[in-house]
């Protein structure tokens, strides 16, 4: 299972009736995206705003019933592009101001512009998430994979595994909690 990337291979239908799915996506990805944004943007507040804007854009796609083929990649690219836009807006100030924070933003802009460096970071993040998923208890992992990889709704998972929808919800909540624990060395969770 470690060789499969559970978040990338399956299209995710982001639909208007999936508020709960959106919340799970938000809970699962917010801190990861914030950590990425924070690595490039020196202001914690600006990084948080950038990630919030990414989720607003995702929500708008949800309202328009768009399908996203690679949710993880899509969110990482949106975050990266939002950081680039932010840094571009600050680029004009860099010519005037020479403080250390502004110089760091310029360096980060160039680092973000490097596709291969961004790809390496994204690949490493995917590997760490896959390892964390492999460490989940068997039933918990099975429910989580059916939800995330196969895109099944809670009722479908419950029927397929002959368990209640409440048990499905509990397994998904447990999976998210355990993933946060397993990934705490790689990501910052608030």
UniProtKB/TrEMBL annotation:
Q: Pfam families from the entry?
A: Sigma70_r2, Sigma70_r4_2
NCBIfam families registered for this protein in UniProt: Sig70_bacteroi1 (TIGR02985), sigma70-ECF (TIGR02937)
PANTHER family for the chain: RNA POLYMERASE ECF-TYPE SIGMA FACTO (PTHR43133), RNA POLYMERASE SIGMA-70 FACTOR ECF SUBFAMILY (PTHR43133:SF46)
Source species: Flagellimonas algicola
Q: Which InterPro entries match?
A: RNA_pol_sigma-70-like, RNA_pol_sigma-70_dom, RNA_pol_sigma70_bacteroid, RNA_pol_sigma70_r2, RNA_pol_sigma70_r4_t2, RNA_pol_sigma_r2, RNA_pol_sigma_r3/r4-like, Tscrpt_reg_LuxR_C
Q: What is this protein called?
A: RNA polymerase sigma-70 factor
Q: Member of which family?
A: Belongs to the sigma-70 factor family. ECF subfamily.
Keyword Transcription regulation included in the entry's annotation = yes
The RNA polymerase sigma-70 region domain sits at: 31-91
Q: What's in the keyword line of the UniProt record? A: Sigma factor, Transcription, Transcription regulation
What region holds the RNA polymerase sigma factor 70 region 4 type domain? 127-178
